[in-house]
Amino acid sequence: MTTPVGETTCRVCRGPLGEFLDLGRQPLSDRFLTEREIPGEFFYRLAVGACASCGMVQLMEEVPRELMFREDYPYHSSGSSVMREHFARTAHGFLESAYAGPDPFVVEIGSNDGVMLGAVRDAGVRHLGFEPSGKVAEVARRRGVRVRTDFFEEPTAAEVRAAEGPADVIYAANTICHIPYLESIFRGVDALLAPGGRFVFEDPYWGDIVEKTSFDQIYDEHFYFFTASSVRAAAERFGFELVDVERLSVHGGELRYTIARRGAATPAAAVAETVERERARGLTAPDTLRRFAADVERVRDDLTALLRRLREEGRRVVAYGATAKSATVTNFCGLDAGLVEWVCDTTPQKQGLLTPGAHLPVVPPERFSPASSDGGYPDYALLFAWNHAEEIMAKEQEFRDAGGRWILYVPDVRVV
Ligand code: SAM
Ligand code: TMP
Ligand code: ZN
């Protein structure tokens, strides 16, 4: 039940926030650590609420951005071949679009290792990435991408406008939902965007999270859970207009929002259609939120029951993909090294460390092989990187052929 308010107010409109889900004490989802760092580990309360005024779903507590997006932020966008293709397609779409002028300037917020801007650079087009996390920004620079190691917000955006002129496209993938200070983002876009330019961003869609009970999309970095309705309201509040929405299948289901200055473009029919579908589904209605919270508890109970049974039967269970999302699963469900031996992950920066909060060892993918020093393949692999299931299952067909089984928990717990 959405509780009456007062405690916390909406980060966008200051309206009353009703909390509907408490996922407990949680660590920083991307802070992998050594044994020695465990005593100083940072924790906060992970809970979600919905605004009764503008419908924006958001975290109740905000984690300081410098704790999350640091020099050694470990997430590398180029780690998935599907995502590399997705971003190359996106870049070419911008370069061919009607709103990119003859000498376009493309700005990206959260450019990470340059996975999208690399393609813009290869086309010889002016560009700039904003990326506060030092090491991934450096990876992009080594690819020839121009990066400013900084947070995008009103003052930094205004500086770029003064020095380099207006941007035709400002793009962000899986980043705007990470930024509580949305007003400063829109003011920055206002300072930097050309009159006929577009602000385009894509993030996990609340509609998919509810439908799939993918509660692991909820963690420190994911501050907002957008809908077309809440983004439209936010855009209008800050002098813009939502002119298009597009469904994307990546990362478990996303929406891409295209925003223009008010009156600069005619909204596509998809905007009104999506908003109406959300209203009809009651995506942020108290009943829906209550049902979602109950579904989350059911998934937790089913998953822990399955893992306990497998342990009693003496089966070997490991996990695949040390995702930020999995911090929520391991800590909310109490998955420790007694239930899950280790997690394999291709990211060198994560290997050799422990996962946040649950402290499962992260090992390189070589351990997940018939020649593994553990004595071959495990019996079961819990797929934390379920959003990359197709890519991973194809790559690991040999595990399945050898009798191994995947454990999935989205949209419900099952063994395949
Ligand atoms: N766009 C990439 C993708 O979709 O794979 C990276 C997404 S990653 C989950 C989020 C990125 O946003 C991180 O690299 C983080 O450092 C960056 N970030 C966080 N706050 C930011 C801000 N205010 N301005 C620019 N980048 C930011
Ligand atoms: P993401 O779900 O946030 O994109 O994170 C995916 C994580 O899974 C990241 O740490 C890289 C890892 N990974 C693998 O270990 N193997 C793979 O084949 C893929 C696609 C990802
Ligand atoms: Zn609000």
Description:
It is built from 13 helices and 17 strands. It is of the alpha/beta class and 416 residues long. The chain folds into three domains: 53 residues, no CATH class; 205 residues, Rossmann fold, CATH 3.40.50.150; 104 residues, NAD(P)-binding Rossmann-like Domain (Rossmann fold), CATH 3.40.50.720. The strands form three sheets. Strands 6-5-4-7-8-11-10 form a seven-stranded mixed beta sheet. Strands 14-13-12-15-16-17 form a six-stranded mixed beta sheet. Strands 1-2-3-9 form a four-stranded antiparallel beta sheet. A hairpin with a 5-residue loop joins strand 10 and strand 11. Helix 5 packs parallel to helix 6. The N terminus is likely disordered. Bound molecules: S-adenosylmethionine, thymidine-5'-phosphate (TMP) and zinc ion. The site of zinc ion (ZN) has 8 residues, from loops. One of its GO terms (biological process) is methylation. Pfam families: Methyltransf_13, Methyltransf_14, Methyltransf_23.
